Automatic annotation (TrEMBL):
This is carbonic anhydrase. It holds the Pfam family Pro_CA. Its EC number is 4.2.1.1. It comes from the Bacteria. Keywords: Metal-binding, Zinc. Belongs to the beta-class carbonic anhydrase family. It comes from Salinithrix halophila.
Length: 195
């Protein structure tokens, strides 16, 4: 049986047996947090457990490397929607050690594209149209520096509130240990306590 058919067969049973009930929640994050993390398979269950978040607690956005590569790309749009439409009040960018984006070789990825049937003509056409594929596919050398850069791009975004806490963390995909790269509370005034 093909994978898609296995998924659909499982889903029919899942719905018929009402196995979805423990996961029912609203679309608004209870902890008012949005997390940008890597799509690495090791983080699927580990990251929420390591951060003490359950279904309904946070919005989680995943991409290759937890990288914000463009200030007006789909990752920033998702973060903006999470803040303004879904009530998120803090952001965590969470990279991880041993990330596949660390040291990725764009030339090798382009070679694999050609092997899988993408024509050299298509690649040349995109390059002539101004798409620098090598730059677009570029990874990073330091996960800490990448997390810091993404957090900074979010923190300084002209369409996000200046007082939005944006934190940067790196997780160990073996143990779940979190290391703080940058804390988003530092530049804000502490709330004044009145009596």
């Amino acid at each position: 049986m093909r994978l898609l058919h296995e998924i659909l067969d499982h889903n029919r049973t899942f719905v018929e047996n009402q196995e979805y009930k423990p996961y029912q929640t609203t679309k608004f994050p209870d902890k008012k947090l949005v997390i940008l993390s890597c799509m690495d398979t090791r983080l699927t269950e580990l990251l929420p457990k390591a951060m003490n978040v359950r279904n309904g607690d946070t919005k989680i956005i995943k991409n290759a490397g937890a990288v914000v590569s463009h200030p007006f790309g789909s990752i920033m749009r998702s973060l903006i929607v999470a803040v303004y439409e879904l009530g998120a009040e803090e952001v965590c960018v969470v990279g991880h050690h041993g990330c596949g984006m660390a040291g990725i070789q764009p030339e090798e990825t382009l070679r694999k594209m050609v092997e899988r049937g993408i024509s050299e003509t298509t690649l040349d056409t995109l390059e002539r149209a101004g798409v620098n594929l090598t730059e677009w596919l570029q990874g990073f050398h330091s996960v800490e520096e990448s997390v810091k850069a993404s957090a900074e791009m979010i923190r300084k975004h002209p369409l996000l509130p200046a007082n939005l806490p944006v934190h940067g963390l790196v997780i160990d995909p073996s143990t779940g240990k979190l290391d703080l790269v940058t804390e988003g509370y530092g530049s804000q005034e502490e709330p004044k306590v009145t009596t």
